Amino acid sequence: MEIPPETKILLGVVLLSLSVSFAHAQDPGTVAAAGAACGAGNVEFDVKTDKSQHPTLEPETGKAVVYVIAGIPREAIIHLTVRVGLDGVWVGANQESSYFAFPVDPGVHHICARVQSSASVSAQLISLHRLTAEAGRVYYFRIATDNKGYSLVLQPVDEDEGQYLVRTSAHSSSHPKPK
Questions:
Q1: For residue 143, how many C-alpha atoms fall within 13 Å in the half-sphere facing its CB?
Q2: What is the pLDDT of residues 107-159, one digit of tens each?
Q3: pLDDT in the model for residue 54
Q4: What's the rounded Cα separation, in Å, for the pair 61 and 64?
Q5: pLDDT at residue 164 above 50?
Q6: For residue 6, what are the contacts with CB-CB under 8 A and spacing of at least 6?
Q7: Which of 83, 97, 112, 150 could anchor a disulfide with 38, C-beta 3.0 to 4.6 Å?
Q8: pTM for this entry
Q9: What b/e sequence results for 41-62 when a residue is b if at least 16 CB atoms lie within 10 Å of its CB, and e otherwise?
């Protein structure tokens, strides 16, 4: 018997929500880490992307730069906006194949990528990374998901791949939506 695609999607969402719930129930440190990295849950972003420009950001004296590149396929079943937080403050958002950059002070930082969504399951899609930044350095991170939007991963990439991803992605500009 062939299972209809709608049933497969619903089953995937149910399994994902259960696995996320169990993971959080088993590890209270995960919740604390998310709180240390992500911004306030009620902040949402408007995002605009521009393929015609590829601005780059060089490190200011005494600072590092972090690029975050979204690699979310256009053919994804759901359209995702992914917010990026640093040390408990949202610094921007991406959609589809886009990037933005921001300066950081040297030291240990906690980065969060979290799907912006009113759907409780999608809003639980989160990925965290610890970064020890050095002045003058540039760091690249890719946000990836499967084409159905069931998982989200924030992963560091090396400089060569990071520069390539920036050149081949749209520039993202975002600002918090008015309340």
A1: 33
A2: 999 999 998 876 655 557 899 999 999 999 999 999 988 666 678 899 999 99
A3: 86
A4: 8
A5: yes
A6: none
A7: 112
A8: 0.78
A9: eebbbebebeeeeeeeeebeee
DSSP 114-147: EEE-SSHHHHT-EEEEEEEE-TT-EEEEEEEE-T
The arrangement of strands across the sheet holding 98-104 comes to 45-50, 170-176, 98-104, 64-71, 138-145, 152-157
Backbone angles phi and psi of 150, in degrees to 5: -85, -20
| pLDDT tens digits, 58-84 | 999 999 999 999 987 665 556 788 999
CB 154 within 8 A of CB 80: no
Q: Report which residue type is found at 67.
A: Y
Identity at 172, one-letter amino acid code: S
3-class DSSP state of 178: coil
Spatial distance between the Cα atoms of 129 and 121, rounded to a whole number of angstroms: 21
Quote the CA–CA distance of 161 and 168 in Å, as a whole number: 11
**Distance spanning both ends of the chain, measured CA to CA:** 48
β-strands 45-50, 126-133 pairing: unpaired
Q: Looking at residues 165-174, what average pLDDT do you find? A: 94
User: Which residue's structure tokens are 């002070």?
Assistant: 105
